[in-house]
Amino acid sequence: MPGGEFAAIERIRRALPQSPPTGETWIGDDAAVLRPPAPGQALLLSTDTCVAGLHADLDLVGLDDLGWKALAAALSDLAAMGGCPSNCLVTVMGPSDTDLEQLYRGLAAASERWTCPIVGGDLVNAPLLAVSVSVSGVVPVGRRAVLRSGARPGDLLFVTGPLGGSAAGLALLRSERRTPPSQVPPSQDAPRQVPPSQDPNPGPALRLVASHRRPLARVAEGMAAAAGGATAMIDVSDGLGADLGHLADSSGVGFELVDIPVAEGADLSDALGGGEDYELVFAAPEQVKVTAAFAEAGLPKPLLMGACTSDPSERRLRGEQLGRLGWEHEWR
Question: How many angstroms separate the Cα of 194 from the Cα of each of 93, 278, 282?
Answer without folding.
Answer: 28, 22, 33
